[in-house]
Structure formats: C-alpha cells, structure tokens
Amino acid sequence: MAFNFQDFLPQGDGMLPRWILTVAVMAIFNTIQNFATTKLTRRIYNVLPNAVTPLQARTFGVWTLMSAVVRVYAAYNIHDKSIYDMTLLSFLIAFGHFSSEILIFRTATLSAAVVSPVIVSSELLSLSTLSAFHS
C-alpha cells in the first residue's frame, strides 16, 4: 500500500476546498510561531511592535488555531452550509481585525508582513460569491 498524498486532500468541487485547507495549514504554522516567539507578529503590528507581548501573541495564536480548525472542517465539508457559513464569518472577522488595525487603531501599516493576512482574510469575497454553489 503506497502513500498517496492526494488521498488526504479534500475531494470537494473545484479549488476552493484545497485553498481553504492551505490557509488552515498556514494558520497552524502561524499558531506555533505565536507560541514560540513574538518576532513575526511584531512585523505585522509594525507601528507599535512593543505592544505585542508574549501573552498577546499566545492569545492571537489561540484565535488563529480556532480559525484553522473551522477552516479544516470547511475544506472537507464544503457543502455543509453551517460549517461553510462559520468559515465565511471567520474570514470576515479576520478581515475586520486586520483592517481595523491598519485604518482605525493604526498599529499596522500595509507592509509585506501585513499584506498576506489581509489577502487571505479577504477570501471571504470568494466564499460569499460561491456561497450559492457550495451550500
């Protein structure tokens, strides 16, 4: 019995389930990073990097892990409307967070470290557009 990586990938229609799984896996690595060091998180909140404490980083890590769990479930259950809607909301919350840190609280600027989370969190546009198809 040979190992086939494809067997572990979501079998849903199109690329959306695989994209959501990719985002979830990246979030798991981000969670680990937040528990290990504040270095990369300080690059996101680059206006006030000293406001990023180990406690805040761990809290951010737990929040990121919870989002990752929801997204893994969505990747493998893309047609379950409840899970799909929760995933859509997780992206909306993340987008709101990063947008407010840039535009309202001004703890971050549009640097290379911030662009990635903003792009990923804007996935909600694709999810909401495809909502009728997947739910």
TrEMBL record:
**Primary localization:** endoplasmic reticulum
Annotated GO MF terms:
protein-macromolecule adaptor activity
Homology family: Belongs to the ERG28 family.
What superkingdom does the record give?
Answer: Eukaryota
Q: Which GO terms describe its cellular component?
A: endoplasmic reticulum membrane
User: Could you list the residue ranges that cross the membrane?
Assistant: 16-36, 88-105
> Any idea where this protein resides?
Endoplasmic reticulum membrane
One Pfam family for this entry, by name? Erg28
Q: Which InterPro entries match?
A: Erg28 (IPR005352)
Protein name, entry field: Ergosterol biosynthetic protein 28
Record bears the keyword Endoplasmic reticulum = yes
Topology with regard to the membrane?
Answer: Multi-pass membrane protein
Give UniProt keywords alphabetically.
Endoplasmic reticulum, Lipid biosynthesis, Lipid metabolism, Membrane, Steroid biosynthesis, Steroid metabolism, Sterol biosynthesis, Sterol metabolism, Transmembrane, Transmembrane helix
